Amino acid sequence: MYTKKIGTIVSLNKSSFVIDIDNKLETYIIPNNIKHCIVVGDIVVLNNFNIIEKIIDRRNIVYRSLFSKSKFIAANIDQILIIIAVKPSFSVNLLQRILIEASRSSIESTIILNKIDLKESKHLNKILEMFSNLKINIVKICAHDTINTKLLLYKILKNKKNLFLGQSGMGKSTIIKTIYNDIDIKTREFSQKLNTGKHTTSFIKSYKISEINATVIDAPGFQTFGLNHVTEKEILKAFYEFEPFFQNCKYYNCKHIYEKECGIKEAIKNNIIYEYRYELYKNIMINK
Q1: Strand partners, 137
Q2: Domains in the chain, CATH or no CATH each
Q3: SS3 assignment, position 258
């Protein structure tokens, strides 16, 4: 009898994928013709031979790119949580790049500041104030304070498919371990199914938190986030506070970088737009 199964990809490596079908995990080989097409979060149809026959249309897909190379991260996401920490220092440029990708994908974003038990620098406070004034959601936690961290994050994660992103060393793994009690057991299960051994941070994993009807997707830490796939218009869209001043630019196709008579530059002079934010824009536009 010919039957089809529908499930969600919860983890994968170069050769195999783990799929959740009716809350049961199964492992299958990735066919060569779709090896670079599927990502964690994809909803797929398997045929009678357990081969992926179709990828259900995605609501969105998050990825990074550098020149001609793309790294797909996850699909069908409701919220991106960007993990930063008081220490070690984090890259504001990298943070802004993730915010741009969230904007391009029409995904809600939240900044999680970890390690608030450590003393915050004046520079960090200025950065957080800037993003807060731009109405970007910021949540401050100490992952070692497990009770309060869990209470805070459960409210944010509830009823959503959540993607955790951030640089290495920001405490992302500790945070996820705090909100998902069985992470060690589940991670070992993924490792065994994918035959990846102990080094479990090298692949993307998805966990269900049934009590709040949420999914948490854990991606390995990274140090770069290329935006070669993002258009200049999409980058500009993420700097939404610029828009009211476009009408003051002399040229209709002003890029707000080299032009002298520019409404954005005038707004910076008048302290209406943050100069630091503009410098981020300029750097990313020139070095996607």
Answers
A1: 110
A2: 5-55 (2.30.30.140), 61-218 (3.40.50.300), 232-286 (1.10.40.50)
A3: coil
pLDDT at residue 194 tops 80: no
- Reported for 149-152, long-range contacts at CB under 8 A and 24+ positions apart, including other chains, are 149/175, 149/178, 149/179, 150/178, 150/179
Q: What is the distance between the alpha carbons of residues 80 and 161, in angstroms, rounded to a whole number?
A: 9
Known binding-site residues for Zn(2+) equal: 249, 254, 256, 262
pLDDT of res. 200: 43
Range list of H helices, 92-181: 92-104, 122-133, 146-157, 172-179
Which one has a higher pLDDT value, 107 or 86?
107
Kindly write down the DSSP assignment for every residue of 47-67, as one continuous string.
-TTS-EEEEPPPS-EEEEEET
From CA 208, how far away is CA 10, in angstroms rounded? Answer: 10
Residues annotated within a binding site for GTP? 114-117, 166-174
Residues tagged in the binding site annotation? 114-117, 166-174, 249, 254, 256, 262
pTM over 0.85: yes
Specify which residues 245 forms β-bridges with: none
